[in-house]
Amino acid sequence: MRQYQRPAGRYHIAAVLAVLLGLSSFGFLEAEAQQAASFEQLLLLVTAGDTVSVTESTGQISKGKIAGLSRSSLRLVVDGIARDMAEMAVSEIKQRRADSLGNGARNGAIAGAAFGVFGAFFSDCRGSCAGDRAAMIGLMSALGAGIGVGVDAPIIRTQVIYRGPSRPSSTHFNIAPLIRSRNKGVVLSVSF
Fold first, then answer.
1. Which of 167, 153, 160, 164 is CA-nearest to residue 46?
2. Which run of H or E residues covers position 137?
3. Range(s) of the domain holding residue 128
4. Among 10, 32, 41, 107, which residue has the fewest nearby CB atoms (within 10 Å)?
5. Which CATH number goes with the domain that contains 74?
6. Considering only CA atoms, which of 112, 84, 114 is closest in space to residue 18?
7. How many domains does the chain have?
């Protein structure tokens, strides 16, 4: 009785493919969240009622709900008080958003495919097993994609959704006379 012996080259190719697929799933850079450069673009990313954190060009940070947004201004309700902000006065807007499920599905599918390739080529299969191997790789890829989506679903991050054009920083000095019935002097104000 002659025993079936698989050529050693197949094991090496399968092992190399599995390792490369597995390692490549960790090498992807995270995609940057959508970021608007104008209020006109921001109209596509937020709606009235969304909670955001706005950094004004003065450096003041306000957290509130969007009451209205136009191409040139933002109405933000902070502690029950509505504030109108011009686009030029806003340098950055942040919002807590869910992580993209696409990268989790992609990374999970690649990792699953690596395990599928490993399992398919190292299984004890005699004869023509191409269909079984393809099914194993496909099943493991789908399982990995599902696990990747499950891992990414609960992740919520604060993301920058608007960044205004960079403005050169400048320092302003204002000097004004102070003349009152009791006081006389000079008022000096500095802003940067």
1. 160
2. helix 130-152
3. 8-31+100-154
4. 32
5. 2.30.30.100
6. 114
7. 2
Same structural domain, 111 and 186: no
| Beta partners for residue 162, in sequence order | 36, 93
Same domain, 51 and 81: yes
**Looking at residues 12-33, what average pLDDT do you find?**
53
Written as six digits, the tokens of 186 are 């000079």
CB 139 within 8 Å of CB 115: no
Query: Do residue 104 and residue 70 come from a single domain?
Result: no
Secondary structure class of 117 (helix, strand, coil): helix
Six-digit token string for 122: 């190292």
Over the stretch 99-135, which tens digit does the pLDDT of each residue have? Answer: 778 888 898 999 888 888 888 777 777 777 778 888 8
Q: Residue 1: inside a domain, yes or no?
A: no
Distance CA 14, CA 188 (A): 76
Domain identity same for 93 and 165: yes
Q: What pTM was computed for the model?
A: 0.52
